[in-house]
Amino acid sequence: MDRAEFEAVVAQAMLAPSAHNTQPARWALRDGGIDILADLSRRLPVGDPTDRDLEVSCGAAVEGTVLALAARGAGASVTLTEGTGGTRLRPIARVVPEGVAAPDDAALAAEMSGRLTHRAGFSPASKAALDNWADAHMTLVTAAAQIDWLAKQIDIASARIVRPKPFRAELLQWMRLRKDDPKYDADGLNRDVLVMDAITARLVPVVLGGKVYDLLSALGLGPLLSGEAARSSDASAIALFHWPAEGAMVDAGRAFYRTWLQASARGLVGWPAAALADDPDTRAAVSDRFGVSGDRVLFNALRLGVANKATPSRARLSLRDVII
Ligand SMILES: Cc1cc2nc3c(=O)[nH]c(=O)nc-3n(C[C@H](O)[C@H](O)[C@H](O)COP(=O)(O)O)c2cc1C
């Protein structure tokens, strides 16, 4: 693989989703293969203390790399890398072009440029869009009453997670609330992707950063503040993602991204709800209700439906930032 081909592959692979749009994956061309590493300065020490989401995000980047090669007709062998690496970069996986691409992969690769996180709300999906869709790592919830229950749990879990001040401080660091922020189109969550008007954007630091949140939270209004329940309830399905407890979260991230791209191929948009997996009590209640066995761990959820309006475009670092 020459340098130009490598850069074209990375440009496509970096469209993969990542928690808070931290984009922790880094790529290096070494001995004809691609090494993928995690930039540990992009960790979320408060929100993701075990690095689960960092690994899931890097796994999505690994799958993006495999699919970008498939788009060029090449197959790939993937080896997860052991070890903790240096203080700044942790090796995640090595992807080596090998043989020819699986036909399914070339088709999935075509979905990468159009897939975006859609937070603006859903219109109903046709039954056909959700039919004949099963995967060992996914439980697809389609009954309206169950979706309503999950929608409430998302807000309850979010309120619990957001309550500690350090979490709010970390979240604020990754929010790009002013259009003149130099990182507005580069990383984190800007107010376009959050579908947030200018007035709300001004209030967010006041509420999240200060005592107002504590007061509202003490009054039991936390779930109302996250305010996603109505939009979550409009989802036509919520996919729950689980993985063997002993398995690698990098592999879980690969599977998660593939399923999201399959959703795109079915004409659906997705909106993760990691809160269901982050809050221990909620994770236990959801796992119990939907029969996720004890040897598997719920690691994310994806609200699915048809986009009711255009999805704002994505923010990404430049190639220069992610190639090492
Ligand atoms: C592991 C993981 C967890 C995520 N959790 C959430 C979430 O709880 N809520 C949310 O709105 N988006 C969530 N996202 C979506 C990211 O914010 C999104 O992928 C990122 O901002 C990049 O934008 P894009 O998906 O439109 O390319 C998550 C993504 C990943 C990979």
Written account of the structure:
The structure is a single chain. This protein has 324 residues and is of the alpha+beta class. The mean pLDDT is 95. Helix content is 42%, strand content 20%. The protein contains 14 helices and eleven strands. A hairpin with an 8-residue loop joins strand 3 (74-80) and strand 4 (89-100). The protein folds into two domains: 3-116 and 318-322, NADH Oxidase; 122-307, NADH Oxidase. The strands form three sheets. Strands 5, 6, 9, 10 and 11 form a five-stranded antiparallel sheet that branches. A four-stranded antiparallel sheet has the order 1-2-4-3. The chain has a two-stranded parallel ribbon with strand order 7-8. It is globular and about 60 Å long. The longest helix is centred in the N-terminal third of the chain and has 20 residues, at 52-71. The chain binds flavin mononucleotide (FMN). Flavin mononucleotide binds at residues 17-21, 53, 56-57, 60, 116-117, 119, 189, 271-275, 300, 314.
Number of spatially distinct domains: 2
Radius of gyration: 19 Å
Shape: globular
Tell me the CATH topology of the largest domain.
NADH Oxidase
Helix content: 40-55%
Number of strands: 11
Residue stretches low in confidence (pLDDT < 50, at least 5 long) are none
* Topology as a string of helices (H) and strands (E): HEEHEEHEHEHHEEHHHHEHEHHEH
Tell me what the CATH architecture of the largest domain is. Answer: 3-Layer(aba) Sandwich
What's the main sheet like? 5 strands, antiparallel
The CATH class label of the largest domain is: Alpha Beta
Global structural class? alpha+beta
> How large is the share of residues in beta strands?
15-25%
Q: Say which CATH homologous superfamily of the largest domain is assigned.
A: NADH Oxidase
Q: How far is it from the N-terminal to the C-terminal residue, by CA?
A: 16 Å
Give the mean pLDDT.
Answer: 95
